[in-house]
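Sanity check

After download, print the first record. It should look like this:
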Amino acid sequence: MIETFPLRKGRRWAWLVAALILLAASAGVKIYGITLAYLGWKRYGAAVVGESLFWPLVIAAGLFLSFLIFAGIAYANWVKAILLYQNGFAYKDRRGLHPWRWRDVAALRMAVTRHDVFGINTGATHAYTVENRSGNRLALNDSFSRVEELARAIEEKTFPILLEQASQQYNAGRNLTFGPVMVNQAAIQIGKKSYAWGEVQQVTVQRGYLHIARKEGGLFSGAKTALAGILNLRVLLSIISQVIRVRVE
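Expected structure tokens:
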């Protein structure tokens, strides 16, 4: 094993603390109901006991059910981690290890949202999706420690394999689909808009979007799509750069 990326400690403890708070609240409401029923019994007799207990017990039961749910999530999350190996990675949970070999990875989707307040960078939200050739998907986000570093490691290991496969298909004249973007030897297509390579002036990556600029118009006269929806973005840009200039800003 090369490296471990567990869930963030704060995320693990948050579920446990929330579960304990719900358990304490359930006990408190139950004690309140019993106390209320006891005082009612002393003052008015047994006839008011059931009415005094009903709603506190209902609320206590709801809180206890919520405690069980939160405790179950805390228990399940406590051991979750991604383990990096030389030939792949593994997702670890209570059921054991679930291996993903580098050659089994079919797609990587990367969505990074930068947050600014009055022009000041306040951080970013990371969401990555890894898909294998069987169609299974694994979501990686900021719940995992150093998730950006983890995603870069997965991309570095899978990029040469995916690029080789894509290049072979491209050179064979096949269509390559990268989510909303499709390319082949004749054209590039975003959604329903298709442009022959001869019409394209350049492809630009800017502010979270992939832009196609046509020769006959302005810089963004063609089409654009969000980078977050593109599969294997780095592979796509490598294929495009073999045909037309790619500018990354």
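If your output differs, re-run the checksum step. Summary of this record's structure: The mean pLDDT is 90.
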